[in-house]
Amino acid sequence: MTTLTVPGTPATPSPADGPHQVRWLLRLHRPALLVWAALVITVGGALLWLRGPLIDSAAAAWRRYDACPRANCSYDLDTVQLYKDVYLYTTLAVLLVPFLVAIWSGAALIGRELESGTVRLAWTQTVSPTRWLAARLALPAALVTTGTGLLVLLHRLAWSAGRGRLDTNDSWWDGPTFHANGPTAVAMALAGLAVGVLTGLLWRRALAALVTAAAAVAGLWIALALAVPHLWPPVSRVVPLGHSGSPLGEFTVGNGLVTADGTRLQAPGCADEASCDAAYARLHAVGTYLDYHPAAHFWPLQLTATALLLAVTALLTVAAFLLLRRRTATATARKEATA
Length: 339
Known about the structure:
Elements: H1 17-28, H2 30-67, H3 77-116, H4 119-124, H5 129-162, H6 175-180, H7 184-203, H8 206-227, E1 235-240, E2 251-259, E3 264-265, H9 273-282, E4 285-293, H10 298-338
Antiparallel strand pairs: 1-4, 2-3, 2-4
Helix pairs in contact: 1-5, 2-3, 2-5, 3-5, 3-7, 3-8, 5-7, 7-8, 7-10
């Protein structure tokens, strides 16, 4: 593993260093910038198509199917299937942005420069390691926030345009739809940037940083999916046995049996109504409970999850600066000791 070396104490930074760093980054990573612009334009165009002509055609085909009195009626199944496919692929594209950002920032933005040693050139041209890292975080963060935010807005508009017009539309709480419809996708993209930068500094190898960053983002998505139902107090509903207590179209968190004193129990497995009644009687159950999130909880859940992700991003960013400072300081101390 190579050592981070600081060739010498840089001169006092000039006011032009900031614009110079921006121009250098844009020129160095022009291919990535073009790919990012092409991705945002392509997915954004598909979402606009999804919101406009495609949903109109698919909804018209669905209405003809619902209005048909016979079981063997024909309708434009291809258009409906196309709408579902485009929705699926655009949703996945929005959710893949954090992976792409993490892979690029770990491998190309940080890992490749440290591996090749070109970072030493930047540190000799009136740019300290701290300013070097700050520039590599600030500009990509602005571009990632703007592009991902635009895709999230267009995705929410596309989903809203199809709500109530197709019976097969995803619910608001469906995992991919939930995250692609709100700021958690933007916050996860920023977390991916911080993860990539940290892994690039940690491994100083492009391939190792790429793999580690992708795995870390996958872990963050899994952790977020497990945490979201518990980030806001759910609504509880208790109904007597034999009554329906499941509101349609809501995000179920938990359910089971409840006794007369309010104790909650896990519902036993039973094959038919008679065996269920006998099992409930043995448990002294008098009703069932349901914990769920109504549609009104979308924004509380989204904002709480976003705040949590931004806190993680801040911690990862601080860790990256501390790691860079520690390694450059150690390298400088070794150089002075051998001088």
